[in-house]
């Protein structure tokens, strides 16, 4: 594992299920996750609809052509270093990222947060715990 990459530590879906994130077209969605976010496809399925399970750092998410609205879903990822995550995404050539590291408080934890909206419409937050 290269030290120039951020490590995913956890993932929480915005809706109910991070293993069933809606995309309109799986084949056009997957390359973004592989190229820009460093995931790899570990499983594909045709039933009940086209879907794929992607993995990075032991964290899995699933994309599915399930008819859901991608603009209403996504995941919050806990990362060890949000600035490395930004550098990684930028180095991969993706520039539609908000490098405005907002401090957000959830419960008693403050997070330094980066937002990435995938071309499929799903929104992702990458957060690093702040002391």
TrEMBL record:
The lineage of its organism: Bacteria, Pseudomonadati, Bacteroidota, Cytophagia, Cytophagales. It comes from the Bacteria. Pfam families: Glyoxalase. Coiled coil: none annotated. This is Catechol 2,3-dioxygenase-like lactoylglutathione lyase family enzyme. Residues 15-129 form the VOC domain. Signal peptide: none annotated.
